[in-house]
Every structure is written in C-alpha cells, then in structure tokens.
C-alpha cells in the first residue's frame, strides 16, 4: 500500500512540530526517518496513525485521504504502529496478548472475556507468533519477557491487525548491540515476507545505513533531506545538523 503525505502541519502552542512536510512512501518500501531530538519524528508518526489530529495537510493511502479519520478507522484501513514503549497487557502471556489482539481485529471484542476465542483466532495468533519468533515464550507473561522480546511482542500485536503500512518507533531502543541486530534482521524479514510499506524511526546510524533503502531527515519539523544511504551520508546539511554532532548517539 502506497502512503503519501501532503503538506502536513502540526503546531503545539508556538512550536511547529511538523511544518509543511510532503513525502512519498511507495508500496513495499523500507524507509528510515531520522533527525535530532525534538525534530518531530514521533509527531510525524502520530499524525499518520491518527493519534493526533493534523492542523492541515493530507495522509493518502493508495490515493484516499484518511487525515480526518480516527485512529481506529486508519488501523482498519491498514496503518499499524508499534511504540517505543511496549503496549501489551503485562499480566497476560504472549499467546493471550496475541489472541486478544486478533480477536479485537476480527471485531469480536465481546468475546475477549470468554474462555475460548472465536474460531480461527488461536491459529492466527500462533502464525504471528511463529512469524516474529516468539513461539518459544508463548506461555510466558509479558511482564517477565526480556526487553527485546517485549518489543517483539509489541510489533507482533501490531502485525496481528494485518497492517499494510507499519510504523516502528525506535524498534531497537534500549537494546544491547547483539540484540539490536537480531531485532533489525527480524524486522527486515517481516518486511520482505509481508511486503509491508515499512517506516521506522531510528537513532542508530549503523542500522539506518545498513537496512533502509530511503532515508528521510527531519529537523525542526521540516524535511531537511531525503535520499539513499549514500546520498544522506554525504549530504552537508545533514552532516551539519545531525550526523556531525553527537545528537544521534544514545
Ligand atoms: N503532545 C505534545 N504537546 C506539546 N508539545 C509536543 C507534544 N508532542 C511533541 N511536542 C513538541 O513537538 C516537537 C517535536 O517533538 P517529537 O517528540 O515529535 O520529536 P522527536 O523527533 O520524536 O524527538 P525524539 O528523538 O527526542 O523522540 C518538540 O518540540 C516537542 O516538545
């Protein structure tokens, strides 16, 4: 699914968090959004997912403007999102969390409190678990998972809703180097397998340069540059505003 952003703007008080940003994300593309702290990256995701209303501009999904739709309606149209901080039910197991997400997705909220999920739901939850590599912890409570597995669960919950466009806000935040690469390889695998239009925010430039085919740089709410890893690495304004500083180091 193709995502096009047209002249998107959002202000908070006097701050232009996103300032007239237009960007195209072709169907099946893998893009990174980078930029210094406070550049507007999370706000950009919030405007796409519908967590915040935009002041002006359009969010087009395969040509249809969804900017006035609610978060839930956008989710139903195919926009999925996983967060910096895991958003699962901590006292439920991995399998239960996914079963709940799939049940909700198939419009069976009323069934959530029942002992047995509706037909097909358990299988679908199992598929997502397999796909993301969490089957070995299916019966473990979310709260006691490792940090990396909690993030994977968060992505799995987003995937249970069968998104076409997936937004990942710092999927590797807080992970050690080894766990980080494992996570990113899994994300790349998902993107390939599901033919997702995937957009991720990331501060680790090694990861960004290694896996993104296109990089978009935000700075003070504006689009500073976009291009291939090679183009961005050599872009003087990006070096001045971001890469040449320590701002991207965690
Ligand atoms: N809910 C909000 N209310 C008021 N101001 C906000 C809100 N959300 C973001 N802002 C402001 O908008 C600007 C952009 O913030 P945003 O969190 O989108 O940046 P970011 O690039 O994601 O930063 P970071 O890399 O630190 O996560 C900042 O000046 C921030 O203070």
From TrEMBL:
InterPro entries: AAA+_ATPase, ABC_AA/LPS_Transport, ABC_transporter-like_ATP-bd, ABC_transporter-like_CS, BCA_ABC_TP_C, P-loop_NTPase
UniProt cross-references to CDD domains, sorted A to Z: ABC_Mj1267_LivG_branched
Assigned keywords, A-Z: ATP-binding, Nucleotide-binding, Transport
SUPFAM superfamilies xrefs: P-loop containing nucleoside triphosphate hydrolases
GO MF annotations, alphabetized: ATP binding
Alphabetized Pfam families for the sequence: ABC_tran, BCA_ABC_TP_C
Domain (ABC transporter) ranges: 3-245
PROSITE patterns: ABC_TRANSPORTER_1, ABC_TRANSPORTER_2
Protein family per UniProt: Belongs to the ABC transporter superfamily.
PANTHER family: AMINO ACID ABC TRANSPORTER ATP-BINDING PROTEIN, CONSERVED COMPONENT OF ABC TRANSPORTER FOR NATURAL AMINO ACIDS-RELATED
Summary of the function given for this chain in its UniProt record: Involved in beta-(1-->2)glucan export. Transmembrane domains (TMD) form a pore in the inner membrane and the ATP-binding domain (NBD) is responsible for energy generation.
Descriptive protein name: ABC transporter ATP-binding protein
């Amino acid at each position: 699914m193709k995502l096009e952003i047209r002249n998107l703007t959002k202000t908070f008080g006097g701050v232009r968090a996103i300032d007239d940003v237009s960007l195209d994300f072709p169907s099946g593309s893998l893009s990174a959004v980078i930029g210094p702290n406070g550049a507007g990256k999370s706000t950009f995701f919030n405007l796409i997912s519908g967590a915040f209303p935009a002041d002006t501009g359009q969010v087009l999904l395969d040509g249809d403007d969804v900017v006035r739709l609610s978060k839930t309606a956008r989710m139903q149209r195919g926009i999925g999102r996983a967060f910096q901080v895991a958003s699962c039910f901590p006292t439920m197991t991995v399998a239960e969390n996914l079963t709940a997400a799939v049940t909700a997705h198939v419009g069976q909220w009323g069934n959530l409190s029942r002992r047995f999920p509706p037909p097909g739901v358990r299988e679908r939850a199992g598929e997502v678990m397999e796909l993301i590599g969490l089957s070995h912890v299916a019966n473990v409570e979310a709260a006691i998972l490792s940090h990396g597995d909690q993030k994977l669960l968060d992505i799995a919950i987003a995937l249970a809703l069968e998104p076409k466009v997936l937004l990942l806000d710092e999927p590797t935040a807080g992970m050690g180097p080894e766990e980080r690469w494992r996570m990113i390889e899994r994300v790349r695998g998902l993107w390939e397998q599901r033919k997702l239009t995937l957009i991720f925010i990331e501060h680790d430039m090694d990861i960004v340069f290694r896996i993104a085919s296109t990089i978009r740089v935000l700075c003070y709410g504006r689009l500073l540059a976009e291009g291939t890893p090679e183009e961005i690495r050599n872009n003087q304004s990006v070096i001045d505003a971001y890469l040449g500083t320590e701002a991207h180091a965690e």
